[in-house]
Each structure stands twice: as structure tokens, then as C-alpha cells.
Amino acid sequence: MAPDVLLVSAVLLAFGLAWGVTRACCRPGSWLHFLDMPNERSLHATPTPRTGGVGVMAGVLAAGAWLAVLSSPGWPEGLALLGAGLLAGLGLVDDRHSLSARIRLLAQVAVAGLFLAAAGFELPWWAWPLLGLGLVWMSNLYNFMDGADGLAGGMALFGFTFLAGAAWLAEETGLAALAAAVAAAAAGFLCFNLHPARIFMGDAGSVPLGFLAGALGLTGWFRGAWPLWFPLLVFAPFILDASVTLAKRALRGEKVWQAHRSHYYQRLVRLGLGHRKTAWLAYALMAGAGGFGLLALPLGFSLQCIIITMTLLVHLLLGYRIDRAWRCHEAGSLKP
What we know:
By secondary structure, the protein is mostly helical. The protein has helices at 3-26, 52-70, 75-97, 101-118, 127-144, 151-169, 173-193, 203-223, 229-234, 236-251, 264-296, 301-334, and strands at residues 35-36, 48-49. The chain has one domain (3-334). The protein is built from twelve helices and two strands.
């Protein structure tokens, strides 16, 4: 089958199945209708199902199987799908029964270790723990950022679309088709997750999507499709928000593993921007980061450094503005 036909068929399958399964999960009579109950750390006020990730992963795994039947996918891509499927199953159990943080972390470490050990990457000894930590962090930060309508699904749509574009330009058609299928599955889910959201992604979707972002990013790097900075820049809106927030909470002596409402996107919603405008601002950042990353790929190292630096400065400046607005907001709320 021609590469373009293969890619389009995988995209259509992923979108259609994700849309259909997510729609079914929205129905109160569905056995996958697990409600997320609002609490003091939530941004929503209405009980809402949190199993949309089942639809996303159904589309991703079905498209992966389709690609395996019609083409010869690489071994790392197959391992990435296997790991994502395992994490999705664990996430679904967690969404239903609330597993302990220790069990979730051990499972993520095991999946990351399995992927790196079996993928066939040639690495120096010191790179193994660093890349393993990176995969675990990507899984968790994606979960941390799944807290506002349309946000996590939008990051998947933009991020994996840019990975697919870069892989296609590098003639890595199998990797491109898989990344495009992940983006399409996210689009099917987004039909029900845009504000006002009818369903949330939950751990069954957010954790495996974060793992896939890291695993496919590493696969493209080792294949020569892109330098390592490219997937980091593509997912920079999520990576920077989660990493800076975690670092600040750790410096304040807070329990970083506990749920909270101090992410930048959460503060934007609470400052009055709302879910819809916060999502559109995030989409602009995602499109900018991924678009500039794609434009920088064929350029020289110096120009790449300039583009990366400018993109990061935009994110840091926005973070500074949000911090300043939040301090003013807190000061105003303390006045009698």
C-alpha cells in the first residue's frame, strides 16, 4: 500500500474509533461511565465521566494494529504501543479504584525500562537512567496537565501532528503514520472534550499519551528524523508548565505528588480567563512551538539555537506575567 494511503487510512480509523468509543463512554448507561467528582482542587463543578482516554487509546491501538498488518512497523514503535497499552489498562483501573501513587510509579518505571531495554538503542551507561527518568516524567507531566477542558487533547493533536510532519519529511513513513494516528485519535476525543466538556481523558489516556510522546520522540531521534530538542520543543507548553510548577512546589516544601491547582493553566482559568480562552491560548503556544520547531529542522545550528531560545523566552515571559497577575489576585483577595 502506498505510504500516503496507509497514513490516511490509519488516521481515519483512529479518529472514527476514538470518536465512537468516546461517545459511548459519555452515555450514563455505559459500564465505562466513571464519574470524576469535583473537589477543592478541581476546575469543574459538575460530576463528569473521566474515561475519554479509553476512546483515545482504542483509536491509537487499532490504528497501530492496522499499520502492523499492512506494513512493517519498526520494533520501537511496536514496543511504544505495547507500553502505552499497558499504561492505559493500569490507568483505567486507577480511574475506577484509585491505585496508590507507588504502584503507578513502579509500573511506569517498569514500562519505561522495558521500552529502553528492548528497543535496541545503543546508549552509554549514563544515558539509560536519564532517558528512563525522562519517559516517566513525560507520562506524569501529561497527567498533571490534564485538568482543563480541551487542554490535554489539544496538546496531543498539535504535538503528534508536528511529530508526524517531521517524520514524513525524513521519509520515516511508519513513524509518521503512527504519530498522525495518535493525533487523529486525540481529535476524535476532543469532539467531546472542548468546553463545556462532556467527558475527561483520565489516567487511561493522559499517562499513555505522555509515554508515547517520549517514546516516539526517542525513536525519531535514534532514527535521525530529528534532533533530541525537537520533541522537547514540540511539547514545551506542557513540559515547561509542569516542570516549573513542580520545582516551585518542591522549593516551598509542598508534597509534589499531591493534587493541586497551582499550574499556570489552572491559574489562568481561576483568574477569569475561563476554560475556552485558556485552551485557545494554549493552542497558540502549541502551534507556535511546534511550527517553529519544524521550521528550524533544516536550518543551521546557530539559527536553531536562536529559534529555540526565542520560543522558550516567550513561554517564560508568559509564565512571569501569570505569576505577577496571580500575586495581585491573591493580594486583592486578602483585603477586607
